[in-house]
Amino acid sequence: MRRFVLGLFCALLIAGPVAAVLPEEQLADPVLEARARAISQELRCVVCQNQSIDDSDAPLAADLRAIVRERLSAGDTDEEVMAHIVARYGNFVLLKPPLDLQTILLWSAPLLVLIPGGLGLALYLRRRSRAGAADPTPLSAEERRALAAILKTGDAP
Amino acid sequence: MRRLAFIIPVVLFLMVAAALGLGLRRDPSILPSMLIDRPIPTFDLPGLTPEDTVGLASSDFTGKPVLLNVFASWCVACVIEHPMLLRLQAQGVTIHGLDWKDEPAAGAEWLAQRGNPYTLIGSDPRGRTGIDFGVTGAPETFVIDGHGRVRYRHVGPITPEVWTEILQPMMDRLETET
């Protein structure tokens, strides 16, 4: 049983992510094909929306992969190919959305959280270290006797 | 100062909760159309069968507002939508059809069995015209005004509610516009 589980685990290790690009879709020119793959990995599939068109098996994703390769073969730059798809489906298809008015909140969210959080933490730590530095009130004679009794018996009175 | 330290997080929480609550009411899988208020892409498609001498072209969208309905014989939700389209046709609404990513013969067969609600039909077996429209699936319906501009896109079947609440008021308004 253990050997079986171990074998299964090893099988999972070598099973890397497999792209949906079929051999007949690929371009003969390896440089163009590499560019097509890179672009496809940046474009979101509009059917299964959390996959790139490079990963997706949806027929529409295959169509978009074909369009990417057609545009590249026609001599478009990477940016022009992206713009061609964005003109049809909008910025939503970019897995890395550009910084604009609509996405400013998204891109600035880490700063919006980190800066006030950091300030709050700094304030808190400073206040605490200042409180710690102040002289504590010494124990009264009675408290000291009680403490000694506790330490001796190991028991609260 | 003490009170402020209490109020600020509460206000922040309420703002975030309100924003997320609003977000829950939207369907994020429906993408906004890039074509709203813009002219339809240029296309000239053949009909479904070799006997159909007229297909559908972008030049057909002038004069009065029409619906462009994206359908296919493989599309399950189109079967649900179909009776509604026939009813709209009977009411005098002009609907053009785009048989998207479909065998033209299969599309023709599908319509022969169920009835044809479309005035003009274009066959788009490779799906390129649909992609130019930003179609993400079938059925989808575009409201196109008399100047050939896209005014609205509906994703999914046209239900009676969608028609009376959204599409019909829009068509009526566009009718008076032209």
UniProtKB/TrEMBL annotation, chain A:
The chain crosses the membrane at residues 104-125. The keyword Protein biosynthesis does not apply. Residues 9-151 form the CcmH/CycL/Ccl2/NrfF N-terminal domain. Pfam families: CcmH. Keywords: Cytochrome c-type biogenesis, Heme, Iron, Membrane, Metal-binding, Signal, Transmembrane, Transmembrane helix. Residues 1-20 form the signal peptide. InterPro entries: C-type_cytochrome_biogenesis (IPR051263), CcmH/CycL/Ccl2/NrfF_N (IPR005616), CcmH/CycL/NrfF/Ccl2_sf (IPR038297). It comes from the Bacteria. Gene3D superfamilies: Cytochrome C biogenesis protein. Possible subunit of a heme lyase. Belongs to the CcmH/CycL/Ccl2/NrfF family. This is Cytochrome c-type biogenesis protein. It comes from Brevundimonas denitrificans.
From TrEMBL, chain B:
Its main location: other. It comes from the Bacteria. InterPro entries: Periplasmic_diS_OxRdtase_DsbE, Redoxin, Thioredoxin-like_sf, Thioredoxin_CS, Thioredoxin_domain, Thioredoxin_ResA/DsbE_sf. The keyword Disulfide bond applies. The keyword Disulfide bond applies. It is found in: Cell envelope. PROSITE patterns: THIOREDOXIN_1, THIOREDOXIN_2. Keywords: Cytochrome c-type biogenesis, Disulfide bond, Redox-active center. Residues 34-172 form the Thioredoxin domain. Coiled coil: none annotated. Belongs to the thioredoxin family. DsbE subfamily. NCBIfam families: dsbE. This is Thiol:disulfide interchange protein.
